[in-house]
Amino acid sequence: MNTMGSRACERPPVRQVLVLRALGLGDLLAAVPALRALRRRLPDHRITLACSPKLADAVAVTRTVHQLLPTTAPGRSVPERLSWDGRPPDIAVDLHGNAPLSCLPLKALRPSALLAYSEPCGPPWHPDEHERLRWCRLLEWYGLPADPGDLAIAAPAARTSAPGAIVVHPGAEAAARRWPAERFAAVAHALHLRGHRVVITAGAGEARLAHSVAAQAGLPPGSVVGGADDIPFKQLAALIANAAAVVVGDTGLAHLASALRTPSVVLFGPVHPRLWGPPADGPHRVMWHGDPDGDGRPGDAHGRRPDERLLRITVDEVLDAVDGLPPGPVDVPRLPETDE
User: Any residues with CB less than 8 A from the CB of 60 and at least 6 apart, and which?
Assistant: First the structure.
C-alpha cells in the first residue's frame, strides 16, 4: 500500500473561524456588518458563531456564518466554556466585549490567532463608539476591511396577518428603557383613530403589558402578538418587514426594523443614540432628550425605573415623528423558506 501517495491525496483540513457573540437579538444584528466582513474577507474559512440557540433563525437570515455553536450565559455575562469539538480554531474572534474575561472561553480553545480588544496587540477600546462601528474597527485593525453600514438583511418568506400595520412595541428588557405604558397607549389610540391598523407586540413575559396598552388604546381583539413566549423570529421579521412603521424603544426590535429598512420611531433614554441608534441615512426618526454635549452613557441602561431622559419624550412628539416617516412598507428582498 502506497501510504505516501494516499497522504498526498488527503485534503487539507478546513480552516475554522469561531466568533463569540452570546448576547441578544439587537446585539446580533449590530454585529452583522462585522460578521459579513468575516464571511467576505475569509472565503476559504468555515465560520462558526457561538451564541444563544434561541437566535438560530435570526442567524440563518443574516447569511453571515456557516453554523451556530449553541451557548448560554445568564444576562449579558460571558459563557464559562464553549462546547467546541475537534482541533483548535484557526482564528477566534471576540465580538462579545472588551474585558479579558470575554476572551477566556476562546483562549481556552488555544486558537492559532485571537482577534480581540483586550489583547496586547489589539486596538484601543472607545466607550463612546457606535456598536456597529466598534466591531468593524476591530476587524480593520487586523487587516479585514468592514463596512458598518452593511447591516441590511432580507425578510423571510413567512406571511404576516397584518400587512401595512403600524407596530407598537412597549416592552424593553429593563425598566430604564421602557417608556410609560399609558404613553404608548395614547400613541396607539391616536393612530387607531386616524384609521391605521395598530399591532402591539410583546416578548416573553410581556403579555400583561401589551394587553394593557391595547385595552387603553381601544384596539380591537387580536391586536396583540406574542406575550406568553417570544414571537418566533420568522413571524416577527415578516411582521416588521411588511409594517408601515414601527414605534419602539431602544430594544432588539428597533435593530430589526433597521436591518429590514422599515420606517421606525425609536425612543432613547439612558443611552445616547450615537451608540446604538439606527443608521442616519435610513427611514428612521430618533427621539432623544439628553444633554447633546454630555456623556453618551448618562444613565443606567439596566436600571429599575424609566430614565428621566426617556420621560422627557412626549406623546405629541412621537405622533409628529410618525407623521414624518416615509411611506411604508419598504419593498425588501425575500428569502426562500430553505436557507443556504
Answer: 339
Burial bucket for residue 179 (CB in 10 Å: 0-12, 13-18, 19+) = buried
Residue bearing cell 446604538: 276
> Has residue 151 been placed in a domain?
no
- Extract the C-alpha cell encoding 216: 387603553
Tell me the pLDDT band of 65, cut-offs 50, 70 and 90: very high
For 32-46, 285-299, 319-333, which range has the lowest pLDDT when averaged over its residues? 285-299
**Domain span at 288:** 166-323
CB atoms within 10 A of CB 308: 14
The amino acid present at 164, given as its one-letter code, is G
Distance CA 211, CA 190 (A): 17
User: In this structure, what CATH number is given to the domain that contains residue 273?
Assistant: 3.40.50.2000
Same domain, 207 and 301: yes
pTM of the model: 0.91
Which residues, 6 or more positions from 326, have their beta carbon under 8 angstroms from its beta carbon? 263, 283
Rounded distance between C-alpha atoms, residue 207 and residue 325, angstroms: 28
Please report the pLDDT score of residue 13 as a whole number: 74
